Amino acid sequence: MRIDLHTHSTASDGTDTPAELVRNAAAAGLDVVALTDHDSTRGHAEAIAALPEGLTLVTGAELSCRLDGVGMHMLAYLFDPEEPGLLAERELVRDDRVPRAKKMIARLNELGAPVTWDQVARIAAGGSVGRPHIATALVELGVVDTVSDAFTPRWLADGGRAYAEKHETDPFEAIRLVKAAGGVTVFAHPGAAKRGRTVPESAIAELAAAGLDGIEVDHMDHDAATRDRLRGLAADTGLLTTGSSDYHGSRKTCVLGEYTTDPEVYGEITRRATGAFPVPGAGGPRA
After folding, report:
1. What HEC string does 89-105 produce?
2. N or C end of the chain, less CB within 10 A?
3. What is the DSSP letter of 137?
4. Alpha-carbon distance values, 195 to 21, 90, 93, 122, 149 (Å)
């Protein structure tokens, strides 16, 4: 089985619609794909309706969290999307995205980059507005060459010149809320130091003690030494280890299935979940 547990659609900051994403996942030879848009489940229904036969969908979201001033992302799988506590927290985070984007646009204007809100809103096309949309605007204007080039201290990286904070969930609270909604939690790309400051490994151990289920080890932003270190940490703390592409369509260079999750780990994730269940494809068209 080929299992990719971290992808994004136009419901947040990917460039594939949810329907396109599942068709592309099938064409890439995946057996299981998770749709984990930022703080949003809006793409799930479309993905399910288009799900090709032979592909299973894991519903999820990537939750925006912050611990001791360090931003981090929590992948939440197979939770009840209507559970009131988690739903209310996701809405708080999502509702703060537009004011935060407008603050960053104003700072970019002060730095001489003529990004506009209308441009960013067009790029987001109704999805949850995030930094990748602003980064795409910078690419369109020729300020930077690639989206990745915008995620530096010069521009949009955590603490960068144009960075602005938004409401983000305490990760211990995120674990509690996801558990209450019957879901499973995996810390996304915990060693992605190129993105900025990372949560210390001592904190990951504390999160594990609080109920964190796993950490994403095999990821494009982790080098070999980081992966080895994270596997050792997972073994010491009893955490599951996953691998994923973090696919964003054409917005990033990663491809579907670039990194995958062991079938036994996937089985354990589904065993622990009680809020929702994986959805098998019902015969939608394959790409």
Report:
1. HHHHHHHCHHHHHHHHH
2. C
3. H
4. 25, 23, 20, 25, 11
Q: Is residue 53 classed as helix, strand or coil in its secondary structure?
A: coil
Residue range 104-150, pLDDT digits in tens: 999 999 999 999 999 999 999 888 899 999 999 999 999 999 998 99
What is the rounded CA–CA span in Å between residue 198 and residue 12? 23
| Range 173-176 contact pairs with CB under 8 angstroms and sequence separation of 24 or more | 173/89, 174/63, 174/65, 174/74, 174/76, 174/89, 175/74, 175/207, 175/210, 175/211, 175/212, 176/210, 176/211
Q: What is d(CA 61, CA 63) in angstroms, rounded to the nearest whole number?
A: 6
| H-only helix segments in 71-191 | 84-95, 97-110, 117-124, 131-140, 147-150, 171-180
> Could you tell me whether strands 279-280 and 240-243 are parallel, antiparallel, or unpaired per DSSP bridges?
unpaired
Paired residues of 58 in beta bridges = 34
Predicted confidence (pLDDT) per residue in 18-47, tens digit: 999 999 999 999 999 999 999 999 999 999
